[in-house]
Design goal:
Strand order of the largest sheet of chain B: 1-2-3
Number of helices of chain B: 2
Order of helices and strands of chain A: EEEEEEHHEEEEH
Structural class of chain A: mainly beta
Order of helices and strands of chain B: EEEHH
Largest sheet of chain A: 8 strands, antiparallel
Strand content of chain A: 25-35%
Strand content of chain B: 15-25%
Helix content of chain B: 25-40%
Number of strands of chain B: 3
Oligomer: heterodimer
Distance between the termini of chain B: 45 Å
Radius of gyration of chain B: 22 Å
Helix content of chain A: 10-25%
Largest sheet of chain B: 3 strands, antiparallel
Radius of gyration of chain A: 15 Å
Largest interface: A-B, 50 and 34 residues
C-alpha cells in the first residue's frame, strides 16, 4: 500500500482508489490535481484534504450538509461535465459535497459559495462556484459566544 | 463607476490594448469576448473571491496547527454540536 507524507498525521498509508482527482485544480491552486481525503473519528465531521504533491498543503473541509442541512447544491453545466454527472440540486448519494473551512484567530468559516463536489463513482472533483451568490464564501461556523468564552 | 450602453457586436476599449466585445446578448446572460495582453489576468469576479478564500484556508490550517489543531477542532465541534452529525456521503 502506498504511503503519503501528510501535514498533520505523519506518514499515512492509503489506497490509490481513494484519491480524488481535480482536473482543473482549485482556484488559486491550479496545479494541485490530486488530493487524499482523510477522516479521523475524533475530528469528525472534519475531513482533511491532503495534497499528494505538496505535503504542506492540507485543506480542512466538512460536508456541506453538516454546515447547513438545507443546503441547495447548484452546479453549472460545465462543472457537471467535468464530474460526468447529470443535474443535481441536493447533495445526493454518490456525490460528496465538502465546504472548505478557514480558521482565523477569531472565527471559523466555511465556503458555501464554492463547495468541492466529488463524483464518488469516478473520484473526480471540482470546486463548483455557484452561478448565483446565494451563499457566503465566509459562512461563520462559530457562534460569537463560543469565541468569547475561549 | 462609468456606465456605457452597448449592443451586441459593439466593443469597448480599455487603454490601448484591452478590447471587450459584446458577442451575444441572451435573455439573462451576455457572452463577452475579451482581448487583453497575456500578462493581464482576466477572471470572473467570483473566481477571484474563491482563489483568495482558498489561499486563506490553506494558510489558516497553519493558524489551526499553531493554536493546537485539537483545540481548534474542539471549539469547532462545540460550534457545530447542535447540528446533526451528517454522514460523509449524506
Amino acid at each position: 500500500m502506498p504511503q503519503i507524507e501528510t501535514k498533520y498525521f505523519g506518514s499515512v498509508p492509503y489506497e490509490a482508489g481513494s484519491v480524488i482527482e481535480f482536473p482543473a485544480g482549485l482556484p488559486g491552486f491550479e496545479n494541485e490535481h490530486r488530493f487524499l481525503p482523510i477522516e479521523i473519528e475524533s475530528y469528525r465531521p472534519l475531513v482533511f484534504l491532503q495534497s499528494l504533491a505538496d505535503r504542506g498543503l492540507c485543506f480542512l473541509t466538512m460536508p456541506v450538509a453538516a454546515v447547513d442541512p438545507q443546503y441547495r447544491l447548484e452546479v453549472t453545466a460545465e462543472d457537471l461535465a467535468v464530474l460526468g454527472l447529470g443535474r443535481q440540486t441536493t447533495p445526493a448519494p454518490g456525490v460528496l459535497c465538502l465546504a472548505v473551512v478557514t480558521v482565523s484567530e477569531d472565527a471559523i468559516t466555511a465556503n458555501l459559495l464554492a463547495p468541492l463536489v466529488v463524483n464518488l463513482a469516478n473520484r473526480r472533483g471540482v470546486q463548483a462556484i455557484r452561478p448565483e451568490p446565494s451563499y457566503s464564501h465566509q459562512h461563520r461556523l462559530e457562534p460569537a459566544e463560543v469565541a468569547a468564552c475561549s | 463607476m462609468l456606465m456605457m450602453r452597448r449592443r451586441a457586436g459593439e466593443s469597448i476599449l480599455i487603454g490601448a490594448d484591452i478590447c471587450i466585445y459584446i458577442a451575444h446578448i441572451g435573455r439573462s446572460r451576455v457572452k463577452i469576448a475579451i482581448d487583453a495582453p497575456r500578462n493581464v489576468k482576466v477572471v470572473a469576479q467570483e473566481v477571484a473571491v474563491v482563489e483568495e478564500q482558498n489561499r486563506a484556508a490553506a494558510a489558516s490550517a497553519a493558524v489551526a496547527a499553531a493554536g493546537g489543531l485539537a483545540r481548534t477542532i474542539e471549539k469547532f465541534r462545540q460550534a457545530s454540536a447542535r447540528r446533526s452529525d451528517m454522514p460523509l456521503e449524506g
